[in-house]
Amino acid sequence: MDEDFLLLNPGPVPVTDEVLQSMAEPMVSHRSAEFEAVYERAQDGLDYVFTQSTLSGESTADDGTSLILNGTATMGMEAAVANLVGDGGEVVSLVNGKFGRRFARIADRYASVTRVEADWGESLSVDDVAEAVTDDTDVVTMVHNETSTGLLNPAKEVGQIAADHDAVFVMDGVTSIGGDEIRLDDWNVDIAITDAQKALAAPPGVSAMYVRERAAERLDGESAPFYEDLDWHLRKADSHQTPFTSAVPLFRALAVAVEDIESEGIENRIARHRRQSAAFREGFHAMGLDSFPNTDGPTQFSNTLTAIALPEEIRGDSSEKFFDAVKDRNVSISGGQAHLGGEIFRVSNMGHLTSEQILRGIRTVGEAMQEVGVDVDIDAGVETAEDALDTKAVSASDD
Ligand SMILES: Cc1ncc(COP(=O)(O)O)c(C=O)c1O
């Protein structure tokens, strides 16, 4: 791949050379002490990310176990639901984007599901959630950072409703954990799930979850799919192993990636992600473009990815020329998913992007827009983004 290639898709995200190199080391047995040491390093780093992701770095939970799954986060989402309501039960699933819908579809396979829905990109109504969750509800599923639309859902409010009814709150934090604030205690999160290739900045193929006591007590391994038996995973995690053959190179890469997060300091990392997403958002606005998600109501803009509405003249099939013009500049961004295809574009600031890379992303989008005939003010976009980045301060943690 060209040295100059800039990957701005919301996962996989760029990884460091150290992460890449860790995967080229000689193979070891997944039952060896060497591998157990790798798993333990990854677990320690994950404990830090799951429980200390605040702007002050304070701890938000200490009663759970971090475990790593040989599969992406969709496996984690299914594992959580199947272990909690594998032989039936009541699930309330919040849906205002593609990944919320995926969680509901997974739950459909195991339980009776009540959906609380909003249009993709709109705020979920907390009142609707309060109405849907009852004392019969076993599990509430919610995607914290909806990758398909670039918005943050109200974890605290939803977690409180789940706790009031003694339901287990399962939160997909796939594109927030490692890049944004996560408060497991304050938000009553019982299981938090994330993917390696997103804000943790590791390669794709494995995922991680933090299972807290209240959820662990309710797991029913007997009714879970054999490969996803979380009781078994938790038992093995105590001895830093997986029940079945581990994806050894991917576990090594994950260990290095989470140690990188500790070196940066999670509070610095969260602050940097906030500056960088603000730079993307405010830069695109100054250029003359509009955000896609609507932040009326309890939702907020994502701090890890930005979704922008395509100007009317290049929507639908005509959007292809715009995406080609971005690609010609050796930058990779994402379009919309499902019915949002041809309606929006999305860029990520997850991982280790520098200020220069953020500014290049803005300039590239502006140039591609101009090439397809959209009148945007590139200089205004870049200048505004520079202000948001407060370039000097950010460079310190970017280096
Ligand atoms: C919010 C969210 N949840 C879950 C997933 C899991 O996807 P996968 O299993 O394909 O990695 C993704 C991936 O983009 C996501 O963004």
UniProtKB/TrEMBL annotation:
<protein>
    <submittedName>
        <fullName>Aspartate aminotransferase</fullName>
    </submittedName>
</protein>
<keyword id="KW-0808">Transferase</keyword>
<dbReference type="Pfam" id="PF00266">
    <property type="entry name" value="Aminotran_5"/>
</dbReference>
<dbReference type="InterPro" id="IPR024169">
    <property type="entry name" value="SP_NH2Trfase/AEP_transaminase"/>
</dbReference>
<dbReference type="GO" id="GO:0008453">
    <property type="term" value="F:alanine-glyoxylate transaminase activity"/>
</dbReference>
<comment type="similarity">
    <text>Belongs to the class-V pyridoxal-phosphate-dependent aminotransferase family.</text>
</comment>
<feature type="domain" description="Aminotransferase class V">
    <location>
        <begin position="61"/>
        <end position="280"/>
    </location>
</feature>
<keyword id="KW-0032">Aminotransferase</keyword>
<dbReference type="InterPro" id="IPR015424">
    <property type="entry name" value="PyrdxlP-dep_Trfase"/>
</dbReference>
<dbReference type="InterPro" id="IPR015422">
    <property type="entry name" value="PyrdxlP-dep_Trfase_small"/>
</dbReference>
<dbReference type="InterPro" id="IPR000192">
    <property type="entry name" value="Aminotrans_V_dom"/>
</dbReference>
<dbReference type="GO" id="GO:0019265">
    <property type="term" value="P:glycine biosynthetic process, by transamination of glyoxylate"/>
</dbReference>
<dbReference type="InterPro" id="IPR015421">
    <property type="entry name" value="PyrdxlP-dep_Trfase_major"/>
</dbReference>
<keyword id="KW-0663">Pyridoxal phosphate</keyword>
<dbReference type="GO" id="GO:0004760">
    <property type="term" value="F:L-serine-pyruvate transaminase activity"/>
</dbReference>
